[in-house]
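Appendix B. One record, verbatim.
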Amino acid sequence: MRAVRWLLWLSLADGFVLTQHEGACSYSEIYPQQYVAYKTSELSPEKLTGDLTKKAWREVAWTQDFVDISTRTRPWLRTRAKMRWDDSFLYVAAEMEEPQPWATLREHDSIIYHDNDFEVFVDANATTHFYKEFEMNAFNTTWMLMMNKPYGDGGFENSTRVDPKGGWTMEPPLRCAAQVLPEEALNHPSTKGRHWTAEVALPLAELVQETGAQLPKPGTFWRIGFSRVEWHLKVNSSTGAYEKSPSCQSCPTPGGPHEDNWVWSPQYEIAMHLPERWGILQFADLNVNATKSAYYLEWPSRSAAMAIYYAQHAYASKHGGNFTAKLGDLLPFSSDPFPLCSEAEVNITVSNGKSAFFEASVRPPDVPQYTATIRSDRFLTVARQ
């Protein structure tokens, strides 16, 4: 993984204070973006239209503008989001600046990121397993899936795309809507677009499915990621229509034949299926704008555990697939964005051979009442002492 040496440029959530948690193993420099979502009784799935001027959205703040997924280059188009919730749904709104609104896919369960799209990733129990992904385009065409674990750990997609009869889905009761402004700009180069919006009602019961998480209440923390895929377009001189002409703007090699990937909280590499790097969603009550962002006390232990995970896999790649039970063996394999915390209390058990496996418990000094346990398949849990 490419080392990341520019972490200090990131900003924390507005009004957030970390001074009491700035030790060497706090991982405060890579603390993710965080959003306080207020409960509401004014939204319902049946009333979603993509119109973000309704009171329920006007009265809450936008997220920080999205950034490039892996570089410091500022995206040339603005993207931002908002969140609300009720007892049954997590509501997400997004606004995407777009002078060339374009979509081609109309069939449900298409691979939506082949178009310009908006994506939501939710890990309700923050274990990195059984997280959910939702994608939509400006036609309001959708694709959703559940991952038993990340692709890099041998995970697989559970969806109606791969199993039309028995695959996992959130529809129904999921509802969503897209709106393009001006409407006539969609797929018409003769009319310049301003933006397109997404409005989504994600059912809470499906988001917690298989995770062991409870339905949220004020004070609950979840992990959530947002991604916008943007393809460079050109106008076909013969047809007068848009066509895809990949040439990324903020990627590691600008102008390369790839899409742009813009996210709320940076991933440090072009990979969304790294749930430990997603943003933090903090649920709050109905009293809008009365709750401050609260420090996610599990962050240091989670980060220290992920440092063990990355170092172990780097070690194994050099040692025939075998892991080590010695922290000292891992120090040469420490890497950004999760460098090893050498001050942490660490206990590692290893089983090597045909099916090598490790499990490590980590308790860093910054918030020692929280111990994280990480497995070789990235399954991550935290216990309070």
